[in-house]
TrEMBL record:
Protein name, as recorded: Protein kinase
Organism: Pseudoalteromonas espejiana
Origin superkingdom: Bacteria
Keyword Transferase: yes
Gene3D superfamilies with a match to the protein in the record: Phosphorylase Kinase, domain 1 (3.30.200.20), Ribonuclease Inhibitor (3.80.10.10), Transferase(Phosphotransferase) domain 1 (1.10.510.10)
Amino acid sequence: MNTLSELSAGKLKGAKRLQLVEEITEFPSEIFTLADTLEVLDLSNNNLSDLPAEFACLHRLKRVFLSFNQFKHIPEVLAKCPALIMVAFKGNQISEFALNSLPKHIEWLILTDNTLSELPEDFGNYTQLKKLALAGNNLKHLPTSMANCTNLELVRLSANNLIKLDDWLLELPKLAWLAFAGNEFNKAQCLTKSTLKNTPLKNFQLKKVIGQGASGVIHLAKAEHNNVAVKLFKGSITSDGYPLDEVNCCLQAAKHTNLINVLSYIEQSTQLGLVMELIDTNYTNLGLPPSLQTCTRDTFNDGCNYPIEAVYKIAKQMANTLAHLHDNHVSHGDIYAHNTMINDQYDVLFGDFGAATNLAMLRIYQQQQIQLIEVRAFGCLIEDLLSTVSTADKQNELFNKMSDIATRAINTAIASRPNFKALIALLNDLV
């Protein structure tokens, strides 16, 4: 993190990245001294409500973070920034999104947790968009022009007021990660019926925090006879939607060998939670989350190298798990290596239902389309894993066969993709 005093003193000359958190209410003009070098500007967690007309002189700026400020509109000067491809306004009070407010070449837009009731009718002009986060707004419908955003890969629409799911959205050729729980047409009113018990939080002794995500905090906890993992949700809404939808999807998913085992749930007036089997310490994350550069695709530690046989074993388990979820009318919405755990034998445990959605109320066509959207995410996962395979393994016939399956799964002609049961058959036939 940087300071205004450093900037004013010229100590940040030539900086490509700048982050300031100093309760700023007016855009600091000193930032313009970095116009020839600045590529990433992070002014989140301040008190800004507008940007000056001169902002466009930051001609090398690629990414701007303005989350958790006081913006009520999207400043139209952003549209004049020649290199800008990413804009983040999470947690503001934005209710106004005027025509032509953003550069046409924008690739990544974050508007989570604002008060937008509609998107501009020209939204379809943003044809280069890959990643769009709109959860936690007041949207009742999406502009039909958005069907032109054919490069969209990840879309978050949970916790809005949408009255229906448009077919054109499910027909976007590159869409792989979609979340839309908690809207007017599918908002959960209560927990789904389950054979699992509602266990009071007082029954557990919380020992330490062992994990934390967008939706909640996971604790190592002492139960009556053993240790368990207790996930306690942070509040009424998360970056992916409502905690109630996540809990419901976990319960609806039921048991599967490769799903993290849910033992019970916690439903109290002030707290919602899940009680899960403690994962063996031999398990580690299969990958790392996407970076600013990869946008929608996972990353891996330097030197990460998965044998082709391991990729095959992981793929078989994931295909079976995802087929099971869709048989139970659940879409995961976040099929990624970073949400997948493996042990030394490449046994898989899959979890994190924060972006999951109950599909039961949708038409059969829409359920089928959403499964094929998730097939593309599966294909991306396999493709990413194959990128870690050694040069020697790439000469293996199995590598070519797995590459072919990944290619089929990510086919932009959606109807040509195999569903998960067909993928299972294809994988079983490989060896």
